């Protein structure tokens, strides 16, 4: 499947573009065209008016135009057997006007226009006759129902990493601020899980923190850890709700990159087997790379947590969109292998929504951004603000 989405309108934010692209992918798969290529252009009234005038001889803007690949293509190109559907061009200006008129969000109207445009590419034409219009409307209704069924309102959850509360505490070597108290406040504010990383060097979270959290966390405790014998022993003693195996380097400020599951296949399989016998689900923190996803499934992981750091660090919009597509493809592939999918690292209040809007991702793990904002507005408000972003991304 090849999907090109071109956003030429300022109202199309990165999260909104990601949601539209996801819907296009769902529609193409639903129609049995997974090997096909399609282009969607989200543009202005001026651009679509020009196209409407040039190709339909109507000098006015419209909401959507469809250009099937077969129409007007050079016979030599058609003979290559390329699985190209064509182009859908949508006026965001007109979509916004119609959304306001019908009492919809811009996204909801774009969803309908994409569906309508795709059906035109497939040969449906409501202008031929009343029967054709009825048939097309019936198909639109069915496809929109499928899209709405694949939405995940409330399914994606937010887990808060409280390591950096412990970092502040350890800077003075005293007993405050307490990450256990912070975890309780995060849960009260709507977090659905608490994450802590018990590192081999104990630079922030301490053994006591993990043991007390195991007794006090009411949602879910996710213990991040390296596959070190000492830490494995602690995990087996306290039995957290799940563990996430991550790479560890003593000189790094924070986890840098994902696990190389391919090269550590035997070691990780052994660790996972021990956890499985203790009924502890295991997640592997990996880069969004096909070989690592396949290896994660082979070693028996229940989850993968996709490393979002490269996406978060992208310097340009184009780089960020490219990384977002890699994450989307990785989540799809992991799901295909029977893995459950989480994601995290470097996510903040401006870049989280796009990742939260991707298919198959169940949970986002976020720490530094929330703890940083908490300095200015309090941890409960900081968590509530992030929960609103995560849960709102499904709509």
TrEMBL record:
Question: Needs which cofactor?
Answer: Zn(2+)
What EC designation does it have? 2.6.99.2, 3.1.-.-
Co-factor: note: Binds 1 zinc ion.
Q: Does the keyword Hydrolase apply?
A: yes
- Site positions (Transition state stabilizer): 305
Q: Which reaction does it catalyse?
A: 3-amino-2-oxopropyl phosphate + 1-deoxy-D-xylulose 5-phosphate = pyridoxine 5'-phosphate + phosphate + 2 H2O + H(+)
Q: How does it assemble?
A: Homooctamer; tetramer of dimers.
What is the protein's given name? Multifunctional fusion protein
């Amino acid at each position: 499947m090849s999907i090109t989405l071109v956003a030429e309108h300022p109202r199309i934010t990165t999260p909104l573009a990601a949601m539209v692209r996801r819907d296009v992918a769902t529609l193409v798969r639903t129609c049995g065209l997974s090997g096909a290529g399609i282009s969607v252009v989200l543009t202005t009234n001026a651009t679509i008016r020009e196209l409407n005038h040039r190709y339909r001889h109507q000098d006015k803007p419209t909401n959507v135009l469809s250009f099937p690949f077969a129409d007007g293509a050079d016979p030599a190109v058609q003979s290559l057997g390329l699985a190209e559907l064509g182009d859908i061009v949508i006026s965001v200006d007109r979509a916004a006007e119609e959304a306001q008129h019908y009492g919809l969000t811009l996204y909801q109207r774009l969803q309908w226009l994409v569906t309508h445009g795709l059906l035109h590419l497939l040969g449906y034409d409501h202008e031929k006759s009343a029967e054709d219009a009825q048939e097309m409307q019936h198909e639109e209704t069915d496809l929109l129902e499928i899209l709405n069924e694949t939405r995940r309102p409330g399914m994606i959850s937010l887990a808060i990493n409280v390591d950096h509360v412990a970092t502040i505490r350890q800077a003075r070597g005293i007993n405050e601020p307490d990450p256990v108290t912070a975890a309780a406040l995060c849960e009260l504010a709507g977090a659905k899980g608490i994450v802590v990383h018990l590192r081999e060097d104990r630079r922030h979270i301490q053994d006591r923190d993990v043991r007390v959290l195991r007794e006090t966390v009411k949602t879910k405790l996710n213990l991040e850890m390296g596959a070190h014998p000492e830490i494995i022993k602690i995990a087996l003693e306290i039995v957290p709700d799940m563990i996430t195996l991550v790479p560890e380097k003593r000189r790094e400020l924070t986890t840098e990159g994902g696990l190389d599951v391919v090269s550590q296949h035997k070691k990780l399989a052994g660790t996972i087997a021990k956890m499985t016998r203790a009924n502890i689900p295991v997640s592997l923190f990996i880069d969004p790379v096909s070989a690592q996803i396949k290896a994660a499934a082979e070693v028996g992981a229940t989850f993968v947590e996709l490393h979002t750091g490269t996406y978060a660090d992208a310097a340009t919009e184009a780089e960020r969109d490219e990384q977002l597509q890699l994450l989307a493809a990785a989540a799809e592939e992991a799901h295909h292998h029977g893995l459950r999918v989480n994601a995290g690292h470097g996510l903040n209040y401006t870049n989280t929504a796009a990742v939260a809007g991707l298919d198959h991702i169940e949970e986002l793990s976020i720490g530094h951004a929330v703890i940083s904002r908490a300095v200015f507005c309090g941890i409960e408000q900081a968590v509530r603000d992030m929960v609103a972003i995560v849960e709102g991304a499904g709509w």
